[in-house]
Backbone:
């Protein structure tokens, strides 16, 4: 049974206390907001698998755990496979009648950062999506390897300064564009794929519920603003996320059955990307005269993507 | 309910098929696997059981061996019986997760069909993969033929799932020589085999939501050491359970297994210590040499892990010379069996002469003639009262003779 009436954020934030407030994530980290929201939007039992990353190292340091539900972490790359295995065991035991409570609904969820999702765990995720396990994979996308101190990932946008793609005298930071993971997951034919953001919490909760209720493998990319590596004041996490969604740097949309695209949020006033970039230390160098062309490029890419998403939505193909 | 299979009193099975039948009879809940030569037929046979209604469990064909063991870990933490199979490169790819499976104390059964490790690429049998697993925290049991591959796979579930053990178990057999050679195998009927293993007992399972469980936590310098020491103790303590399970299996089938297998050791003067199919070759050679008056015997660690330090010592302390045979290239050191056996014998009064042969790499055949020659060489050592050859030599190697290290013990 899912919680259906979501009206009040304060009420919702305490709907289902299965993720303890005591954890080691940075103040201002959006990970915990996203995880808490996922766990609050359903009353079903949850089996959660986490890849190695910020979330994992911050929530299960022996002898403590922040997880008041079944939780497993194996390695950097295999949360999707751990969830696959657990889901297969659930099916086998249900068939054989060996479950303690065979009628209780169970949902299987895997969390990974963009490092484990876009890079090191890409194969494991693709395999699990192809096999069609009934689970939801949620990427906490903070666009860098934050747990190891801010190295580039294939989710890092062009122009961002990271420790392994540095801005310097002859470099404007990362040269490559961000991998389009949402499209790749949709291309697996997954029944539900979406990109969501915690500032639009009602949309996010509905998306989570849709994914949990959809049979088969679902994928959600969530923007998780990283105060430490994006370099902004921890109190500004949601403000930063507002800028991310309202500049359309992170458009909010879903793709059903691999093809039906719906835009879930249209900003009333689309903000120029400059404002989003200027709010973060990782883009500071782009405002030097010699790097202005990168900002222009980012804006151009955003406009083209938004145009593409709208045409895809209109085309209903 | 899964269909039962009527089996003949004696079947003609190869090691792979024997292992697959044991997995079927164990009514495994989840098999997550990825095929690799020479263990592929285990997974294929299991696929045939699934397709024809002989299996109720889930069969998850993943995209790599790393994922196979990852799926097994997720499944085992969810409270049911889990097994898979692999070899060589697949085993190497699994290694990261092997440590995680044992660290989380999950009783998974892995049938390993031993094969050489590249480079150069080689699909034939040696023990390079088995040796790479020796610090992974798994019980490692070695089968020397198809019958044993079947018997010991059944035993593996009962050992690993025992509440006093709760550790993953590997059952090894030699690639091709055992895995692809059809032999007479006496199987148990389905009910008898399943009842021997018993119903799976879940422990701290993820699908019991009355009690939240956290698997795979982080521990740093404050707790990691204690966890690892406890895991080592569990592996050491599994020795009693292994003995008990072997005793129960003997009662059921008449077939006897011991953590250290001894052959002609009561009065042996010279001995070979080996693993895998070479054990049977050495036994045959010992039998032949006995006709010539050489008191030859064979010792085989049935359990590679936990290593029977005391059992090996007890078996060999009265021989004069022993050759340890390693089917894995130690790369810059003495062979593993040499090191383990020497360490055990160093603690004895008489300290028999110990030497080391590397043999059979990449599936190079190990012959009776070779085994006889090694025995005779031990006899020469024994008669001389000291080693008459370098301590480490290579058997069956083409090209110039290789030998390393001289003894410093006088005669």
Residues:
């Amino acid at each position: 049974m899912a919680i259906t009436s979501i009206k009040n954020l304060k009420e919702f934030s305490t709907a289902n206390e299965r993720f303890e407030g005591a954890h080691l994530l940075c103040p201002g980290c959006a990970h915990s907001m996203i995880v808490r929201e996922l766990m609050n939007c359903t009353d079903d039992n949850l089996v959660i698998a986490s890849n190695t990353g910020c979330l994992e190292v911050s929530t299960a340091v022996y002898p403590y755990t922040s997880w008041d539900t079944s939780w497993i972490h194996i390695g950097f790359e295999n949360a999707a496979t751990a969830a696959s295995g657990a889901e297969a065991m659930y099916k086998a035991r249900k068939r054989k009648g060996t479950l303690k409570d065979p009628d209780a609904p169970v949902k299987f969820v895997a969390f990974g950062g963009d490092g484990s999702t876009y890079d090191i765990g890409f194969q494991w995720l693709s395999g699990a999506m192809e096999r069609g396990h009934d689970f939801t994979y949620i990427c906490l996308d903070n666009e860098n390897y934050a747990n190891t101190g801010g190295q580039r990932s294939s989710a890092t946008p062009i122009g961002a300064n990271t420790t392994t793609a540095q801005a310097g005298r002859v470099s404007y930071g990362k040269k490559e564009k961000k991998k389009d993971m949402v499209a790749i997951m949709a291309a697996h034919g997954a029944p539900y794929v979406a990109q969501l953001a915690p500032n639009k919490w009602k949309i996010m909760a509905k998306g989570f519920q849709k994914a949990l209720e959809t049979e088969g493998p679902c994928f959600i990319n969530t923007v998780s603003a990283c105060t430490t590596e994006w370099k902004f004041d921890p109190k500004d996490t949601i403000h930063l996320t507002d800028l991310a969604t309202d500049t359309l740097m992170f458009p909010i949309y879903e793709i059903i059955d691999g093809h039906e695209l719906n835009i879930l949020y249209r900003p009333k006033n689309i903000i120029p990307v400059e404002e989003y970039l200027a709010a973060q230390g990782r883009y500071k160098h782009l405002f030097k005269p010699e790097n202005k062309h990168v900002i222009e490029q980012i804006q151009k890419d955003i406009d083209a993507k938004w145009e593409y998403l709208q045409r895809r939505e209109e085309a209903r193909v | 309910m899964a269909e039962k299979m009527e089996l003949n009193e004696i079947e003609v099975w190869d090691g792979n098929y024997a292992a697959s039948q044991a997995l079927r009879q164990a009514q495994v809940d989840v098999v997550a696997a990825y095929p690799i030569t020479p263990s592929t037929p285990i997974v294929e046979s299991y696929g045939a059981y699934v397709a024809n209604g002989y299996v109720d469990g889930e069969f998850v064909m993943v995209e790599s061996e790393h994922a196979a063991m990852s799926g097994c870990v997720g499944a085992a933490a969810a409270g049911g019986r889990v097994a898979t199979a692999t070899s060589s490169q697949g085993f190497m790819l699994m290694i990261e997760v092997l440590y995680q499976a044992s660290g989380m104390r999950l009783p998974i059964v892995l049938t390993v069909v031993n094969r050489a490790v590249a480079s150069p690429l080689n699909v034939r049998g040696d023990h390079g993969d088995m040796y790479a697993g020796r610090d992974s925290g798994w019980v490692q049991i070695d089968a020397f033929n198809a019958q044993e591959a079947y018997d010991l796979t059944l035993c593996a579930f009962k050992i690993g799932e025992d509440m006093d053990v709760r550790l993953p178990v590997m059952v090894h057999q030699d690639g091709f020589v055992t895995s692809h050679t059809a032999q007479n195998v006496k199987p148990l009927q389905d009910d008898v085999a399943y009842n021997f293993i018993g119903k799976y007992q879940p422990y701290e399972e993820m699908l019991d939501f009355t009690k939240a469980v956290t698997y795979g936590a982080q521990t740093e310098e404050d707790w990691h050491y204690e966890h690892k020491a406890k895991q080592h103790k569990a592996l050491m303590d599994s020795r009693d359970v292994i003995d008990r399970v072997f005793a129960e299996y003997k009662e059921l089938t008449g077939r006897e297994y011991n953590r250290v297998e001894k052959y002609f050791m009561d009065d042996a003067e010279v001995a070979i210590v080996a693993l895998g199919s070479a054990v049977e070759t050495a036994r045959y050679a010992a039998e032949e040499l006995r006709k010539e008056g050489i008191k030859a015997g064979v010792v085989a660690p049935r359990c590679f892990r936990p290593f029977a330090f005391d059992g090996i010592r007890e078996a060999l302390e009265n021989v004069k010379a022993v050759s340890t045979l390693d089917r894995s290239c130690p790369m810059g050191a003495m062979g593993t069996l040499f090191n383990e056996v020497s360490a055990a014998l160093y603690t004895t009064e008489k300290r028999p002469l110990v030497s080391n042969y590397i043999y059979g790499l990449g599936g190079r055949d190990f012959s009776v003639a070779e085994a006889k020659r090694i025995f005779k060489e031990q006899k020469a050592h024994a008669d001389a009262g000291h080693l008459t050859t370098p301590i480490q030599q290579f058997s069956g190697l083409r090209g110039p003779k290789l030998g390393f290290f001289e003894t410093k013990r006088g005669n």
Observations:
- Chain B touches chain A through 46 residues (CB under 8 Å).
- The CA atoms of residues 164 and 314 of chain B lie 26 Å apart.
- Chain B has a mean pLDDT of 97.
- Residues 260-404 of chain B form a domain with the Rossmann fold fold (CATH 3.40.50.920).
